[in-house]
Amino acid sequence: MVSLISPPSSSPSIQLRETRFFSTLFIPPRSVRFLQNTRNNENHKWKTVRCGVTSAGASPPPSLMKEPHKFFDHVIITVRAGDGGHGAVLNHREKNELEQGKTKKKGKGSLKRDFDGSLILPTGGHGGDVVIYADEAKDTLLEFHNKSRYHAKRGGNVGAMGVLTSMLRDGLVAPTMRIPVPVGTVVKSKRGKVLADLAQPGDEVLVARGGQGGISLLEMPQRQRKKMMALTTNVMRDDSDKILVHGQPGEEVKLELILRVVADVGLIGLPNAGKSTLLAAITLAKPDIADYPFTTLMPNLGRLGGDPSLGAGMYSSEATLADLPGLIEGAHLGKGLGRNFLRHLRRTRLLVHVVDAATESPVNDYRTVREELRMYNPAYLERPYVVVLNKIDLPEAKDRLPSLIQEIMRIGNRDAQLSDETDTKERKLEDYPRPLSVVGVSVLKGIQINEMLKEIRSALKKCSGSSETLIST
Ligand SMILES: Nc1nc2c(ncn2[C@@H]2O[C@H](COP(=O)(O)OP(=O)(O)OP(=O)(O)O)[C@@H](O)[C@H]2O)c(=O)[nH]1
User: Fold this and answer.
1) From CA 280, how far away is CA 292, in angstroms rounded?
2) Which stretches within 243-328 are classed as H helix?
3) Residue among 225, 459, 183 at smallest CA distance from 347
4) Of all atoms in ligand 1, which is nearest to the CA of residue 394?
5) What is the DSSP string of 315-363?
């Protein structure tokens, strides 16, 4: 396999063309770094990389061009609950003891009996159930690409076959298999039915039930059998009237796990706009930052500290920020990082739209992303947002900052809400709300960071009650 990390500088340059990366479920994050998008052109071009293997250049496999990242926040797993343990076929030592049931005193050595005196025979242990639960310590579904089958333990069998004694115990019940997933994971059945939306830490769902343990039978001469059947109550039969000594099989199900990030603020913008740098500048998150698009493969999360001006109440203004991978034209159709990442916006209540103010046309870039949101789900354009014009340390950005702010403020409607009667297809960007504010910064050089934070915090305050989790995506 081609090595993609720290390639030796002396090695010959090649074009990345390892199809193996992409035909398996797990796509190593670094490999995708080399897919380069030309902004105003939907074609992708391949960046030449240096690495340790000599190989001829070739274009990337067509399958990769379509939807290369579709597995990163979406995975199919198979879980199987444990089978029930087996019961046993037992002999009875003293045949008369069976009949003495009602009269014999209960003591240490006596056999277990039901209230009517009938014998209770030991059963096999219940197979382990499978539960999926939301764990704060998890933040990706990547591990499920490496391991997609989970099997809970089977229940224990009733001791050895042999003589029925009071020492015989039920088989051990198998422990429940608990599978941790990131908070915000939606669990769906194979047919697409939502089984659970694990939105809070600790939320859980039972996805497969373990099999019931088998029962035990007493073996005895034909002449006594009738009597025994009358005396034992726990004889189970299946549909074909077979007595169930064997444990029942555990359920097996195929599940779809979909991760949606739970964040207050979603950072959006074209690739390379500086979203990851912004997140690193104002939170403790350490996202990958690099000078090529699609550095961000999984949404990075960062916690924005509370507003110090609120004094003791500052913690109430803490917020989680999600750095969502760069949007490109056609993202709503699955291009670039595509729809899978757009759906992470679902739970955010504020969007921070990051624009590289040093590109040829920042306003066009801004419109491209707004347009993508509109095509994906126009409801996102109604969501409150702040525009951050980044990279004002660069002269080309600094000089035109005032005119850029004006132009962006002109795109949009003053009224926050549009009437429902307007057909969403007919609405242009101009018909949707304007940003709450537009601020120029350099997140890399730390210019105007405090002003930006002030705007974000004040916007968060304004939309504190509007958790729009109901947008369907
Ligand atoms: N000059 C300058 N460069 C910046 C600034 N902010 C970010 N950059 C650079 O822009 C490049 C892209 O930054 P990222 O933060 O990775 O961009 P991104 O929007 O997260 O990119 P994706 O992950 O592809 O969506 C990096 O080389 C950064 O160092 C800034 O304020 N000024």
Assistant:
1) 17
2) 275-282
3) 183
4) 1
5) GGG-EEEEEPPPP-TTGGGT-TTHHHHHGGGGG-SEEEEEEETTSS-HH
Is the CB–ligand 1 distance for residue 336 below 6 Å? no
Q: Measured from the CB, is residue 275 less than 6 Å from ligand 1?
A: yes
Q: Which atom of ligand 1 is nearest to 269's Cα?
A: 19
Is the pLDDT at 143 greater than 90? The verdict is: no
Domain with CATH 2.70.210.12 in the chain: 75-258
If you measure from the C-alpha of residue 143 to the centroid of ligand 1, how many angstroms do you get, rounded to a whole number?
28
Distance 220 CA to ligand 1 centre (A): 81
In this structure, of 82-91, 183-192, 398-407, the range with the lowest mean pLDDT score is 82-91
Contact between 22 and 68 (Cβ < 8 Å): yes
| Domain 260-462 part of CATH 3.20.20.150 | no
Query: Minimum mean pLDDT among 228-237, 242-251, 382-391, 433-442: which range?
Result: 228-237
296 lines ligand 1 (CB under 6 A): yes
Q: Which CATH number fits domain 75-258: 2.60.40.10, 3.40.50.740, 2.70.210.12, 3.40.50.880?
A: 2.70.210.12
| pTM given for the model | 0.55
Of the candidate ranges 144-153, 236-245, 306-315, the one whose mean pLDDT is the lowest: 236-245
Query: How far, in Å, is the centroid of ligand 1 from the Cα of 244?
Result: 65
Q: What is the CA radius of gyration of the chain?
A: 31
Q: How confident is the model at residue 226, as a pLDDT?
A: 60
Looking at residue 331, what is its pLDDT? Answer: 57
Please give the structure tokens belonging to residue 368. Answer: 């491209």
pLDDT (tens digit, 9 = 90+) per residue, 332-361?
A: 555 555 555 566 676 688 999 999 999 999
Q: How far is the CA of 188 from the centre of ligand 1 (A)?
A: 36
Q: Give the distance (Å) from ligand 1 centre to CA of residue 293.
A: 9
Q: Where in the chain is the domain with CATH 3.40.50.300?
A: 260-462
